Prior knowledge:
Elements: E1 10-14, H1 18-28, E2 33-37, H2 61-73, E3 77-80, E4 83-91, E5 94-101, H3 115-119, E6 123-125, E7 134-136, E8 138-139, E9 151-152, H4 160-168, E10 181-187, E11 189-192, E12 196-198, E13 215-217, H5 218-225, E14 246-253, H6 268-281, E15 285-290, H7 300-307, E16 312-316, E17 321-324, E18 330-336, E19 341-346, E20 349-354, E21 356-358, E22 386-388, H8 398-423
Helix pairs in contact: 1-2, 1-8, 5-6
Amino acid sequence: MTDVVATNETILVVGGGVSGMTTALEAAEAGKQVILVEKRAYVGGRITQLYKYFPKLCFPTCGLEINQRRTKMNPNITILTMSEVETLTGEEGNYTATVKISPRYVNDKCTSCGACGEAVESEFDDEYNYGLSKHKGAYLPHRMALPERYVIDPAMIGTDDAEKAKAACPVDAIDLDMAEETVELKVGAVVYATGWRPFDANKIQPYGYDRYKNVITSVEFERMNDPTGPTGGKILRPSDGAEVKDIAFIQCAGSRDRNYLKHCSRICCMASLKQTTYATAAEAKSTIYYIDIRAIDRFEDFYKNVQADENVTFIKSKVANITLGENDNPTLQGVDTEGYNRYATEHELVVLAVGMEPSIDTSTLPGDVSVNEHGYIENDGTNGGIFAAGCASDALDVNRAVQSATACALKAIQVVNRVAGSEG
């Protein structure tokens, strides 16, 4: 059984991405007890799936490694992975959270030797690579996963493969009898840092993501360019595995559209500008179809550099639809709104810059927590000891998400300090 000690001077952080880790670290390093609940098998969130950050084009692994080391060294942080908050009740300074912990089937004896993965044959879609590749039934989620511990896919339980994995483990780390647990936590403040998910491109029927293999999303393209990703860093057409030399990026794919996401996600323009640098490095040409490019403040210089790249073309247009041309080439149809010329242009690969939507399950929130029309939690001062950090509060880039998380840590600390003061 999982043994977790919590009091009304404990801070609960829901979500272990960059915002959740930042919140937890800031609070823990100020001396507060923190419980971090993460639904995945590892912490780090979506930044672990990025190849590079904009605008500096640096790698997320550096900052991730630093935060992971800080987390491991801090005794004030308890991490519960593969866990989700099912209910939350109470009031500021006195909340009760019910947390469901799913079985990992691997205990803390695991040394990540990989013997279990080598022993099994079963394969499953790899969520870390957005389904572009497979992972074994016994697997390490990614090379920098924290905790650095293997996972047994639940679909393997009861099969011969599961027994093979158990028999192959040299340290008796595989426990196929692990069961789901539920723990109840008493906490004084709660920070939701549940992050975001990419908008479901299947819903944008005119763009044919569900029908055309060579129409992919921006998050899939990001994994494709990572040397540790599903294609070894090469930009390959899903239909035939050929290297791509002509790429179209469609901005606001499902965003700023009353039929899908009404809001602007703020990161999509910069993400596509960044991704044109991947294409240029691969000697490919890029065409960006855009409504307007939102690159403000420190991003303006980056935008100008991309504009100066002779391999990148900008077309001001909201693409109307995509049909299939020759050789499985997607054909983009629409009107250039600067010259009002109709076009029907084939490209080898189309990348949909899909927007952000909040990952939070609002049904787990107390009824008096403010949530806006887009599904984000409002930090409007009426939520008592409940706060929203990063993309649980709005569509934010990494820099702004970290700033938001630091602010939430300070607010949560004030709440538990008041609890301590009232009891002192």
